[in-house]
Amino acid sequence: MGCRDVHAATVLAFLSGTASVAGLLAAVLLPNWRQMRLYTFNKNEKNVTVYTGLWIKCARFDGSRDCVIYDPQWYTAVDQLDLRVLQFALPLSMGTAVSALFLCLVGMCNTAFVSSVPNIKLARCLVNSAGCHLVAGLLFLLACAICLTPSIWVIFYNNYMNKKYAPVFSFDVSVFIAIASAGGLFFTSIMLFLWYCACKSSPSPFWQPLYPHAPSMHSYAAQPYSARSRLSAIEIDIPVVTHAS
């Protein structure tokens, strides 16, 4: 399969990027970044677990799924530095990844449906398949760094809070979802880089990431027909045989 076809690598990268963005969205919305478990020594009462998210906070009794205390305005009064950073980092990572997905889709469509002759208008705008995939890979890598760094910091900050206050804090499932999504973004960028490295040896300027100059259309223009080829069969010279005297 040549570079003109849609490789399985690009399709797999697009699907992996889409799944990673969906995972980031779930991590952002779920109120499961940190748990604070409050114990009681009264046998007539139940222990309480406070689930802290980026935007809401929910307190539940053990064995219950209903929130005894539900705070939808938690995002305005977050007093934990790591969660405050995540409020800005994760949406920024999602926006970067969505931009990369759009570029990846443009590159796939350009690979599948554009002719082998580079479009002179697109060439002047530096738009081609290899350029789209290369920039998309860089954006996926950037989105991975933006997501992964504060997500891992939650683990260390959780240990800091346990030492400073009481050993009642623990990180929750959203941390693992965010880290797994960051891994998916990194895998997506690697797939796009491998696709580009496998196809950059093609001699056509169509596969250069950025054109050094607009490709000349003279090299792609069809050669004109010769005047001889346009003559009809009647106009072809017929040799005349003459008798020797």
TrEMBL record:
Similarity annotation: Belongs to the claudin family.
Membrane topology: Multi-pass membrane protein
Keywords: Cell junction, Membrane, Tight junction, Transmembrane, Transmembrane helix
Name of the protein in its database record: CLD12 protein
GO cellular component, one term: plasma membrane
Transmembrane annotation, as ranges: 6-30, 88-114, 134-156, 168-196
Localization terms from the record: Cell junction, Tight junction; Membrane
PROSITE patterns, alphabetized: CLAUDIN
Domain of life of the organism encoding this protein: Eukaryota
Presence of the UniProt keyword Ubl conjugation in the record: no
